[in-house]
């Protein structure tokens, strides 16, 4: 038995030296073994981190765009060079298979690449001669210290939706990672240091509600970017804004995939399996409700079941298709939804409750599960399950399918499968969801577009990354200037108009 590693904060360019009053267990989900103990910050530790970030902002906020971009390029290079190491850290604490962990790092890298273009992204506007001898121009300035609170399911990518842009724009950052898989953030902190980022610009503070509340209420924290479950997202939004902060809080999801009768069913079956069971369904863009229109259901369920029979569940380091769930508690919760669906009268077509696995018996295993004849009043449909459970809902028409998606409280992602361009176009226009896929199951936008849902999937008005990200991490200022020519205008107490 190896001793669990101590995982502590990263403050002011170095590992935190102090002792922790409280810690949390970090386990390898594929074995159940205790691999680490993560320090939980007190509000005093958070104060220390915010003070370091505030001090660093005094310089970093004024550092030239070219110098900031140079550090970003160096970070991008190191991250790319060491992405396999980061992926291995993610798999060891989250459980997702290695290829999936690598995919997560790659999507994060894309945001770093986007942020490398910060000199272009921060260009303002200029209007010459708005009035005689008067010019107006706009500039965007950094906010100061910004907080980022992330969920367990993407320990590298989700923080990277935010911090590359925040740092490139001149802010200094405190990341509060999920306590379930905290090590990725520390690895990233080391890369930043190697890339030449000054101490205090990127800090990692671990912990639970105590750390989150300290960030949300701290007078020197100017904004909070949160990703996690809806209940906490709402709490973070309300508490952060009540304390005068700019907040973007991305919440949970229940993503529907609508399949119309004219769809290519092989393509739809592949998509449903990939999007339903990739990362064991622990993705905010996972498909969890398959809405079959007309006579699509029987053949599609058959095709999906065939494909599910080929999936290998097991340790993510052994080339399996699907890894374990993140914790035992979460695995048991997901399992209880399958029990509830069965008790409610749904048909369990493929049952993952006693899976055959290529892994240790102590892992948090649950096999892919397909449930048919689900109705909209069942908890397998209403709730975000966040596991490898795909529910099939049968409906008669496009209109009923659309209404169902629009009536659901979540609105993160959705997909439609059809060969009818008119139907797809109508869906894109009518559906009340933030990210839409047309014959694409996980419509995760590219870094230069913005990511985020509607309704209970997002609180606040800024989505992540892309131009909305640049906007979120900067404040606009408009300057009206006149350089005397020297024809003085004289006294005029009227409201300024154009002359
Ligand atoms: P979570 O809400 O439990 O935790 C998210 C963060 O909040 C963590 O850092 C955690 O430490 C902190 N937290 C937990 N409880 C808290 C409390 N009572 N007070 C203050 N802070 C608290 O979410 P999770 O289980 O880590 O992640 C899964 C959830 O995240 C799912 O609902 C998923 O849909 C969502 N998610 C959404 C998106 C999106 O883009 N909308 C992306 C990824 C994940």
Structure notes:
With 499 residues, this protein is an alpha/beta fold. The protein contains 16 helices and 25 strands. A seven-stranded mixed beta sheet has the order 16-18-19-14-13-21-22, sandwiched between helices. Helix 10 (265-277) links the parallel strand 13 (255-259) and strand 14 (287-293). Helix 2 packs antiparallel against helix 4. The longest helix has 19 residues, at 98-116. The radius of gyration is 25 Å and the shape is globular. The termini are far apart. The model has no long low-confidence stretch (mean pLDDT 97). Residues 149-154, 158, 176, 178-179, 208-209, 212, 227-229, 232, 250-253, 284, 384, 386, 412, 453, 457 line the site of nicotinamide-adenine-dinucleotide. InterPro entries: Ald_DH/histidinol_DH, Ald_DH_C, Ald_DH_CS_CYS, Ald_DH_N, Aldehyde_DH_dom, MeMal-semiAld_DH. This is methylmalonate-semialdehyde dehydrogenase (CoA acylating).
Number of strands: 25
Helix share, percent:
25-40%
At the fold tier of CATH, the topology name of the largest domain is Aldehyde Dehydrogenase, Chain A, domain 1
Q: How many domain units?
A: 2
- In spatial order, strands of the major sheet run 16-18-19-14-13-21-22
CATH architecture of the largest domain, please? 3-Layer(aba) Sandwich
| Mass-distribution shape | globular
- Largest sheet descriptor: 7 strands, mixed
Indicate the CATH class of the largest domain. Answer: Alpha Beta
How many DSSP H or I helices?
Answer: 16
Indicate the radius of gyration in whole angstroms: 25 Å
* Multimeric organization: single chain
Which spans of ≥5 residues are poorly predicted at pLDDT below 50? Answer: none
Bound molecules: nicotinamide-adenine-dinucleotide
Mean pLDDT: 97
Full CATH superfamily name of the largest domain: Aldehyde Dehydrogenase, Chain A, domain 1
Question: How far apart are the first and last residues' alpha carbons, in Å?
Answer: 81 Å
Strand content: 15-25%
- What structural class results from the helix and strand content? alpha/beta
């Amino acid at each position: 038995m190896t001793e669990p590693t101590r995982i502590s904060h990263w403050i002011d360019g170095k590992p935190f030296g102090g002792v922790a009053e409280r810690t949390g267990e970090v386990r390898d989900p594929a074995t159940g073994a205790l691999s680490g103990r993560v320090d939980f910050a007190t509000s005093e530790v958070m104060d220390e981190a915010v003070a370091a970030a505030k001090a660093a902002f005094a310089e970093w906020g004024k550092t030239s765009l070219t110098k900031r971009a140079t550090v970003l390029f160096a970070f991008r290079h190191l991250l790319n060079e060491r992405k396999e190491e980061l992926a291995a850290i993610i798999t060891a604490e989250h459980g997702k298979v290695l290829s999936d962990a690598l995919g997560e790092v790659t999507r994060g890298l894309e945001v770093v690449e986007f942020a490398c273009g910060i000199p272009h992204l921060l260009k303002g506007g200029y209007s010459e001669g708005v009035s005689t001898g008067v010019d107006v121009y706009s500039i965007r300035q950094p906010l100061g210290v910004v907080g980022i609170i992330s969920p367990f399911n993407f320990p590298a990518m989700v923080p990277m939706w935010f911090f590359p842009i925040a740092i490139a724009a001149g802010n200094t950052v405190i990341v509060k990672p999920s306590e379930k898989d905290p090590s990725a953030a520390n690895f990233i902190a080391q890369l930043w240091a190697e890339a030449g980022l000054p101490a205090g610009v990127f800090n990692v503070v671990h912990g639970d509600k105590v750390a989150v509340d300290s960030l949300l209420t701290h007078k020197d924290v100017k904004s909070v970017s949160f990703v996690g479950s809806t209940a906490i997202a709402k709490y973070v939004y309300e508490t952060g804004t009540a304390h005068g902060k700019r907040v973007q809080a991305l919440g949970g999801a229940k993503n529907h995939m609508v399949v119309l009768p004219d769809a290519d069913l092989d393509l739809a079956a592949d998509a449903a399996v990939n999007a339903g069971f990739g990362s064991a369904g622990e993705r905010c863009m996972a498909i969890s409700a398959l809405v079959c229109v007309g006579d699509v259901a029987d053949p599609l369920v058959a095709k999906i079941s065939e494909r599910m029979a080929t999936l290998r569940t097991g340790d993510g380091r052994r080339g399996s298709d699907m890894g374990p769930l993140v914790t035992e508690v979460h695995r048991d919760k997901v399992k209880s939804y399958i029990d509830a669906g069965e008790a409610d009268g749904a048909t369990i077509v493929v049952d993952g409750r006693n899976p055959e696995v290529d892994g240790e018996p102590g892992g948090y295993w649950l096999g892919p599960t397909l449930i048919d004849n689900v109705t909209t009043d069942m908890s397998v449909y209403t709730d975000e399950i966040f596991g490898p459970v795909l529910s099939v809902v049968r409906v008669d028409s496009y209109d009923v399918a659309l209404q169902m998606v629009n009536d659901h409280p979540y609105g993160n992602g959705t997909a439609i499968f059809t060969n009818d361009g008119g139907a797809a176009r109508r869906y894109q226009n009518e559906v009340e969801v933030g990210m839409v896929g047309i014959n694409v199951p996980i419509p995760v936008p590219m870094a230069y577009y913005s990511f985020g849902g509607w309704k209970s999937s997002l609180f606040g008005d800024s989505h992540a990354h892309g131009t909305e990200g640049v906007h979120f991490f900067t404040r606009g200022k408009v300057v009206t200037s006149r350089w005397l020519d020297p024809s003085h205008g004289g006294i005029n107490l009227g409201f300024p108009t154009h002359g």
